[in-house]
Write a structure and sequence with these properties.
The structure is a single chain. With 281 residues, the protein is mostly helical. It is 80% helix and 0% strand. Helix 3 packs antiparallel against helix 6, helix 4 packs across helix 7 and helix 7 packs antiparallel against helix 8.
Length: 281
Amino acid sequence: MKIIANIARFILIAILTICIIAISLITIVSSTILDKNYIISKLEETNFYGEVYKLVESNFENYIYQSGLDETTLNNICSKEKVEQDINIMLSNIYEGTNKKIDTTPIKDNLNKNIDKLNVRNKKNSEAIDQFIKHICEEYENTLIHTEYENKIHNTYNKTVNILNKVRTATIIAICIELLLILIISIKQISKFVQAIGISLLSSSIFEIIACNIVTSKVDIAGIKIFNDAFSKTIVTIIQDIISKVQTLGTITLIIAIMLIIIYSIMTAIAKNKKDKVTKE
């Protein structure tokens, strides 16, 4: 009977460990990449808006050289505030499904005003100038990484959130059941219950810490390049922050696990002393 109880306890501890790892990772993912406010905070931290604005201006300058128009054509056609507003519109499309379009009309109007001031438009070049303005507006959206797939990304985001919520709920229920079953098996020795929780927390913490160390040692996170430098910098910062959060959680869990194992050892020593006294008597 004791052997069966030990086997059952081992299985329950293993399942509890998996559940603890799952709930930990789900919580971190939900509070980071699946949280719009978190993403905005990271964009501000990495000066993403300012870097994209500089990139927009740089790309505009490449077009002006090709067009043959005066550089003053680009004066004040776009602002950093406009870039920030449009990036936030894209985030709302992804996270909230607002499905708003980026309005390039102000850029178009400002370009036309500047061109009119130069008085260079005529019947021969009018179509070419219109094409130039169209390309500038398209380049603006491309630099912001604005795509027609934002609505599809939102649908995927919603599905992911729903799945994670269900998994979180199921995991919490599973943890409660696991703890109850371990308690029932260990009802005559509460120290075994404390030990089981300690072992589960210890196993999960070691897994999280080792996993983070493997990722950081095998993957050149700082060298990740996606779309442009501004976007890459933000992605790298987010990944590093998530890894840091997992490591911190693993460390805290490890400390709690060690404390529980120490408590178990003390409880076992006390129980043994009592048993020895009874035997001597």
